[in-house]
Amino acid sequence: MFRCCFIRGGGASSYNNQKETTTKTRLVVHLPFHGYTMWNMYIAFATSMKSNRMDHHVFLAAIIVCFILLSSVCGKVLKIGIILGAERAKGATTAIKLINEDQSILNGVKIEYVVNTSVIHNRFLALDAARWQIEKYGARAIIGPEHSRVAAHLAVYCGGRKVPLISPSATDPLLTSDSEYPFFARTALSDKFQSIVLLNIMKAFNWTRVAIIHSNDAFGRHGTLHFETVAGDNGIDIVRKYQTTSALKNINSTLVKMKDDDIKIFILNVQKADVNAIFYAARNVGLLKEGFAWIGTAGLSSSSALKYGHGLVGIKARSIANLKQETFVAAYGSAVNDAYTYYAADAVYLVARAVDKMKTNNPSLHQYLFHKNMTYLSDKWNTIQTDLFESNMKNVSFDGITGVVSLNADGDRRNGMPGYDIVNLKSSNLFVSIGTWSQINGISFAAASRIVWPGGKPWNQPPYDSDTLQSRPIKILSFEFDPFFTCKCGKCAECNTDKTTGRILDHSSTEGLIVDMIAHIRNQDYLNDFDFDIYLYRDLYKPATYASKCKVVDNEGLENMHCMNGWECAKDGICSRQWYNVTGKEPMPYSGSHYAKIVGRGDFDIGAGDVFMSEDRAKMATFSVPFMTTGVTMVRRRDVLFKKVKPTVDLWLLVRPFSNELWLGIFLAYPCVMIVLSILNENSLLTYEKIHHHDDDVDDDDAEYDTKSWLATVLPKKHAIAFTKFYHKSFTVAKWQTIEALFMNEEKSEHPYTRLYLWSWEFCLFLLASAYTASLTNFLVQRVTPEICREFSCMDGLTIGASQGSYQVKIAKDLSRNNAKIVETAGTLGALRMVYKGEADAAIGCSH
Predict the structure, then answer these.
(1) How far apart are CA 531 and CA 759, in angstroms?
(2) Is the pLDDT of residue 429 over 90?
(3) Peptide bond into 752 cis (omega under 30)
(4) What crossing angle do the helices spanning 148-161 and 123-131 adopt, rounded to 10°?
(5) What band does 11 get if pLDDT is binned at 50, 70 and 90?
(6) Contact (Cβ atoms closer than 8 angstroms) between residue 320 and residue 418
(7) What 8-state DSSP symbol labels residue 173?
(8) Per DSSP, what are the bridge partners of residue 545?
(9) pLDDT higher for 303 or 258?
(10) Beta strands in 350-496 (DSSP E)
(11) Please, which residues have CB within 8 angstroms of residue 182's CB and are 6 or more apart in sequence?
């Protein structure tokens, strides 16, 4: 309240029979700080004049003096709305307090505000709060909201009302749209800059494979959009993405799949409410131990309630320490745990500086900014608000609490200021700064030695993803086959191979398509010229032998009579075969399929060669895009086309059409239906007895059921008889009604509600029976329908005809792993004749 005091000299007179006094009379009038017009003052002084008998001259002089004093002391009022959580709202109100105390910013202008902290997570309630703040309270700008998904809705509304909406923490890059959100600005950096920091971290530790886990909202989905683009341009493979669902369903199974995919690096962009549950699941799956790394985004790293995830490397909104920050913290009154609190304060300073700049740039509009009776959304309103935002707020620049605050044309912080802090989670809730990022200087790990990785590994032992190319030389398995890979000196096995390991000794003495491909890949900037070793597949194999009754007789194949399939009689009594053997793993004979299996099980990092692709091989290893189609086709007889799999005896086949949950629901439904029918039957019975029975009949019934009741020993006689009657009459009838309804033969009931309930139950049973019959039929059809075999393994032990001397013979031997009998014929037509006559099970040849 504003207190205005006037003093007049007293004369010798009396009023209302009171004694005259020569003392001075003080007239005290209480006026509010704002909202009074000349008419308000006139009424107030008229009332005072009447009660104090003030003469008109003194009264008019008092009005003039009070109006002058009121205008000079009360000044102008700027109204601001705040829609933030408690901590960040306190940061905004602290800034308002400092501005009101410091007249160097808004001389003669006081900031008033209204705060709403309870609607920050609900976009509809937040929109309702924004409408009230603008349309009822008269706010000229709103500070907030916190979340991107809420900001997207409020920004559209505020844009239509020409009211600036300044968020301290909504970082969705899609909010950067002058056309969709013309009055939206933010003091926090867009996640577009965060994506650049994520890329810099990946490159700093030479990580090339990553999985992304993000929340199912605008913050989560859009927060890594730019990263996905720049990652692909820099050779980083996003192996898997997971979008969190309500209550984090399937998070455990998803993390298991990521582990099976050999993913070691994870980017986490989720809401703070979900992070502990995700880290807890990751710990149980084994993804928070040595050899793994987790990167948290800015929203996550600002959390002060992380129980798990030790070793997390995070991005945190940066606030540059300065004198303004020290002054703010002193006024704040407690430790600032949330970095975005500083950004909320700078949002208030941004509004204040824009209003102050407007006073210089356009003083006439500046005066209208404080008019209380301006028509809402009038031409004058639109002109003033547009000038405030476009001409002043977007062009102001000042040293704020978080550093230099300056907006670009889209309402984002200019030049990526102030950047980010790179932090490391050492223990619960303890983040330690390990570096910084700015658009000018890039990423800097000034305190990298403070990093502790998951599992407690020190900073100089970072995790390596499975594609990291600097931890060791890459092992490449290839063939010596012109024009793919050859040695300049001649046969590689004779002049350029380690006889023990099969490793190529001198890479500069090799040539061919594979050599050129490796050189091209090594020249990519993001691969940093990795080291590699090439091994020749055939040179890995050593002869293996076993004793046999075989004899070397002639060249007609009789020497192999007593050797196992795929083995040859090397000399009398000895069968021999080339064999690849690694301690602790399954030995492999020489074949193209085993080549794929050796690479797929991890003996080598890459297989480079002209390898035929087939469905069974694709299950052993991950193939690149095929560079050529051979056109080789195999024709099979119908009787060998299908898999010869004898159906197993399945005793549970009759229950498989329904899931376990549905069966449980059906069994639980029966007692529930019985109970409801019992109650309806009991009600019907009581009604009938009330109409037709006499008291002596009731007594006879009670006597009859008294002899049947065994409950009389534990319950009062009256209750025992009542329960026994209920069981023998109502419940027994209901029991058979429920069961017989399955056969559409229920016991009839005269009660209309009972009949209606039984009809509903019969209809449900009819639907269940129909669904069960259809599902069971489908199961049975699938069991008797033969499955076409599309793999060469189905030809094991069978005969395949192929054109004599053609490369189809080699393909057939290779794909069948020498487990099929290959008969060479006079051309492909001869092989087809063998199939037609039943002399061969299949024929292989070229389809063109």
Answers:
(1) 77
(2) no
(3) no
(4) 30
(5) very low
(6) yes
(7) G
(8) 576
(9) 258
(10) 397-400, 403-406, 420-427, 430-438, 442-444, 474-478, 486-487
(11) 159
The strand pairing partners of 314, in sequence order, are 296, 423
542 DSSP β-pair partners: 579
Q: What is the pLDDT of residue 22?
A: 33
Give the least confident one: 351-365, 414-428, 475-489, 633-647: 633-647
Show the DSSP H helices in 304-339 as ranges: 323-332
CA distance 82 to 92: 8
Share of the chain residues as helix, strand and coil, in percent rounded to the nearest 5: 45, 20, 35
Quickly state the pLDDT bin for 23 (edges 50, 70, 90): very low
Give the HSE-up count for residue 714: Cα atoms under 13 Å, Cβ half-sphere: 5
Strand order in the sheet with 474-478: 532-536, 474-478, 606-608
Instruction: Specify the residue for token string 């749209």.
Output: 177
Dump the DSSP string for 233-253: HTT-EEEEEEE--GGGTTHHH
Mean pLDDT score, 185-196: 92
Burial 440-460 (b: 16+ CB within 10 A, else e): eeebebeeeebbbbbeebeee
Residue 610, Cβ neighbours under 10 Å: how many? 15
- DSSP letter at 508 equals G
Q: What angle do CA 103, 105, 108 make, to 5 degrees?
A: 50
* Distance (Å, whole) CA 443 – CA 4: 61
Amino acid making up residue 542:
K
Between the alpha carbon of residue 78 and those of residues 112, 352, 361, 394, the distances in Å are 6, 9, 18, 19
Model confidence at 139, pLDDT cuts 50, 70, 90, reads very high
Average pLDDT over residues 775-790: 71
Give the C-alpha separation, 552 to 799, whole Å.
Answer: 25
What are the C-alpha distances in Å from 236 to residues 209, 469, 519, 649? 6, 13, 19, 49
Q: Which two tokens stand for residue 421?
A: 């802090």
Burial code (b: 16+ CB inside 10 Å, e: under 16) for 539-552 equals bbbeeeeeebebee
Are 184 and 152 in contact by the 8 Å Cβ rule? The answer is: no
Cα–Cα distances in angstroms (integers) from residue 611 to residues 194, 519, 540, in the given order? 43, 21, 17
Q: Are 824 and 839 in contact (CB under 8 A)?
A: no
- On whether the CB atoms of residues 211 and 218 are closer than 8 A, the answer is no
- The reported pLDDT for the residue numbered 720 is 64
Cβ neighbours of 437 (radius 10 Å): 22
Q: What is the pLDDT of residues 209-225, one digit of tens each?
A: 899 998 888 788 888 88
* pLDDT for res 412: 93
Residue 133 contacts residue 164 (beta carbons within 8 Å):
no
Closest CA to 48 of 19, 5, 13, 17: 5
Residues 6+ apart with CB under 8 A from 668: none
Backbone Cα Rg of the chain: 43
pLDDT in tens, 97-129: 999 998 788 888 899 999 998 778 888 999 999
Residue 617 has pLDDT above 70, yes or no: yes
User: Is the confidence at residue 279, as pLDDT, over 80?
Assistant: yes
Instruction: pLDDT band for 841, please (50, 70, 90 cuts).
Output: confident
Write the DSSP symbol of residue 802.
E
Q: Which residues pair with 443 in a beta bridge?
A: 437
Kindly report the backbone phi and psi dihedral angles of residue 146, in degrees, each rounded to the nearest multiple of 5, phi listed first. Answer: -85, -40
User: Scanning the structure block, which residue is given the tokens 């992380």?
Assistant: 306
Instruction: Give tens-digit pLDDT for 297-345.
Output: 887 766 556 778 888 898 988 878 888 899 999 999 998 888 899 999 9
Residue 816's closest CA among 833, 795, 837? Answer: 795
Backbone angles phi, psi at 505, to 5 degrees: -85, -40
